[in-house]
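Q&A log
Question type: sequence-to-structure
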Amino acid sequence: MELRITTLAERPELQGPMWRMLDLWPEFMLNDPIGWANIGRIVAELPEYVLIATDQEGAVVARAFSVPFQLHAEGRGELPATGWDQVLLWAFSDRRHGRIPDTVSAIEIAVGAGAQGRGVSARMLAALRENARGMGFREVVAPVRPSAKHLEPDAPMREYALRTREADGLPHDPWLRVHVRAGGVVETVAPASMTIAHSVERWREWTGLPFDTDGPVRVEGALVPVRSEASSGYAVYVEPNVWVRHRL
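Response status: OK
Response body:
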């Protein structure tokens, strides 16, 4: 598939088409409050960290968001257990306080519904790495959402993340496999990478499920069961991700 990959800073006219690209995220995933508050800020304040892929007709077929942050600031140093949410908070805190970033974190690589299964995600990951390298960074980290984990919601993420194929020793999960093939190293699990808490009424709207009892609820697209507290009127999804480190 022929692609042209550029930054949003280079082609700001693609912002609208980028947002209108049809992706495959489950509805509940669009309601993480930290993501809700900060994704738009990446586009507005850090367009050089936003990559957009267009096909030969000029249609947007993929996007990639990343953020710079200071991993080695005082009190940090380790990849956080609160993964995706935490790096977004760190990135904009660092920006507000004038801290010089030393690391780039991937935030999202999304491929349009019509371009799935054509190697686009691997090319976007390569472009994200190259974009960070071009700005002088020596490391990209990624709180990876394993693409097939939703098929095994009861499997512990730590066991799943380290599972490999007998034939070649590469990760069992397809998206983790793409990262490792690109030079990434699976480092650790972020057990509380994203937290989505809302009323059971809203969870019913998002999923079409009853959410009428207390206990775990298996939701299509979720990596682990959602915890329903129907008797108290709310449910909470705490998503684990897998930290992958890319040396540049």
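Response note: The two ends are 26 Å apart (CA to CA).
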